[in-house]
Write a structure and sequence with these properties.
The protein is an alpha+beta fold and 190 residues long. The protein has one domain: 3-Layer(aba) Sandwich (Aminopeptidase). Helices cover 20% and strands 37% of the residues. It has three helices and ten strands; from the N terminus they run βαβββαβαβββββ. Strands 1, 2, 3, 4, 5, 6, 7, 8, 9 and 10 form a ten-stranded mixed β-sheet that branches.
Length: 190
């Protein structure tokens, strides 16, 4: 399965920013965005806190003029699938400001994520999400997998995630995904 075609929405300018290069003002603006997009999160997105659990290493940021209106974080990591280790791009903090939703911004964000993951040489993108947004990712080329995902919660407890686990085939075909094996994220969700 190939990644979806890019959708263009003129007012948004896009950038890739490595975590060490995110400025304090950008962290503060991202915290505002996340507070708007994730109002029921257990993470207090206040001040300069622009991450939930694990910090991303690379961020895709969309701006409408100077205002940050879209974001997606990527962290390259090895997960365990059964006895094998699998390198992938762990994706999280996918957000489009409510003011731009319904205009193709989210679709463009996912298309740009696929391009970025391909540029990083990742065989797969991986994310976990709630059932309420799983269809959004499916429209963006992500595939729901039956693998249960075990991970460390923000409070340090290990849990088996009960929402959707989703994979984006990037540099490897979906047939290479280890079907049926439990996925151990071995770390915090991005």
């Amino acid at each position: 399965m190939s990644a979806p075609a890019e959708v263009s929405w003129a007012p948004i300018s896009w950038s890739e920013t490595w975590e060490d290069d995110v400025t304090p003002d950008e962290h503060a603006a991202l915290a505002v965005l996340f507070a708007r997009c994730f109002p029921y999160s257990r993470t207090p997105f206040t001040g300069f806190r622009s991450w939930s659990s694990g910090r991303p290493e690379l961020r895709l940021i969309g701006r409408d003029g100077p205002r940050i209106v879209a974001h997606l974080g990527i962290l390259r990591r090895f997960v365990r699938a059964g006895e094998a280790s699998l390198l992938l791009g762990d994706v999280g903090l996918v957000a489009a400001d409510p003011s731009v939703q319904g205009n193709g911004v989210g679709a463009e964000l996912l298309a740009r994520a696929a391009t970025t993951l391909r540029g990083l040489g990742m065989p797969f993108g991986f994310l976990t999400c709630g059932e309420a947004v799983a269809a959004f990712y499916e429209r963006g080329g992500w595939v729901r997998v039956p693998n249960p995902t075990r991970m460390v919660r923000a409070d340090g407890q290990v849990q088996v995630y009960d929402g959707a686990s989703m994979v984006l085939p990037v540099c490897s075909p979906m047939e290479d995904w280890p079907a049926g094996e439990k996925i151990d994220r071995n770390g915090l969700e991005v």
